[in-house]
Structures are given as structure tokens and as C-alpha cells.
Amino acid sequence: RVQFSPAGVIADDVIRAEVAALPSKTPLVVVTNDQAIVTDVRNAGANVLSSDTLLALGGRPVKGN
Hints:
The protein has helices at residues 11-21, 35-43, 51-56; strands spanning 29-31, 47-49. It is mainly alpha-helical. The protein has one domain (11-56). The chain has a two-stranded parallel ribbon. Strand 1, helix 2 (35-43) and strand 2 (47-49) form a beta-alpha-beta unit. The two termini are 15 Å apart.
């Protein structure tokens, strides 16, 4: 699923909280180019993909987001 942070909420905090709330065996990919988030979510067991790689694999940016 794709999730966006609510208005006025720091997305980095939402990402970290969502990853931490999932059981460690849950398959999870976080798409980000933010190296601090990459480090934190990898340490929490998530897989990471850069946004450039996602787009190269065929993802399309959503207009208006």
C-alpha cells in the first residue's frame, strides 16, 4: 500500500512508526532517498528501494501528490 503522512505531521516520523509497529517478519519495502530513513528502517528489518529505482522498474509518479 502507499501511505502519505497527514498534513502537519513529519513524514519521517510516520515512516519510522509504521515500520516499528509491524511484526519483524512482515515483508516490507520502503521507498525513499532519505539516507537517515534508509538507515533506520533497514535496522528495523525493512527492505529499501530508492525512488529512482522504483521509477526505473516501471512505477509512475502520481500527479498532485
